[in-house]
Amino acid sequence: MASSSGNNDDLTIPRATLPNVQVAKDARELVVNCCMEFIHLISSKANEICNKSEKKTISPEHVLQGNQDLGCGSYVSEVKEVLQECKTVALKRRKTSSLLENLGIPEEELLRRQQELFAKARQQQAELAQQGWLQMQQAAQQAQQAAASASASNQAGSSQDKDDDHI
C-alpha cells in the first residue's frame, strides 16, 4: 500500500455514494486507503506510459491506457464519460472567464467603473445613515416636547388644584 505523508482526516466517503448507510470508522478508513492506493496505481501506470511515449505531461489517454493495462478496462467507458463532463465544465469556465475579455473594455476602465459604483454605494449608504440619524433626532425632540407639554399640563393642573383649595 502507498504510504501517505499527509493528514487523511479530511478524506471521507461522499454521502451520495452510500445514502442511508452507516459506515464504521475502520471500514471508512479502509475504503479511503483503497481509493488512495487505486489512484496511486493508476497514476504510476499513466506516468510509465507517458515516459515511454517521451512526453512530459500525463494526458487523459495515458490514464485510459493505464486502466486497460492494469486490468480495469471495464471502467474505461465510465472514465471517458467523466472526462467528457470535466471538459464540458472546463469549457464553461473558460467561456465565463473570457466574458470580461470579450467586452472590449480595458481592465483599467472596468476598475474605474467599479470604483465609481463603490463610491456611489458608499454615498447612498451615508445618506441613508444621515436620514436615520435625523429621524432619530426628530423623534427625540418630539418626545422631549411631549414630555415638556405633559409636565406643563401637570404643573398647571396642580396649581389649579391649589387655587380650588383656597376658595
Overall description:
The protein is an all-alpha fold and 167 residues long. It has a domain at 106-150. It is built from 4 helices and no strands. It has helices at 25-52, 60-69, 76-102, 107-166. α1 (25-52) crosses α2 (60-69) and α2 (60-69) packs antiparallel against α3 (76-102). The longest helix has 60 residues, at 107-166. The chain is elongated, with a radius of gyration of 37 Å. The model is unreliable at 1-6 (pLDDT under 50).
General form: elongated
Question: Fraction of residues in helices?
Answer: over 70%
SSE order, one letter for each helix or strand: HHHH
Reported for the largest beta sheet, the result is: none
Mean of residue pLDDT values:
84
What are the salient characteristics of this protein?
mainly alpha, 75% helix, elongated, 167 residues, 4 helices
What is this entry, summarized?
The chain is mainly α and 167 residues long. The protein has four helices and no strands.
List the helices and strands and how they pair.
Blueprint lengths: L24 H28 L7 H10 L6 H27 L4 H60 L1
Helix pairs in contact: 1-2, 2-3
Protein name: Protein Dr1
Organism: Jaculus jaculus
Subcellular location: Nucleus
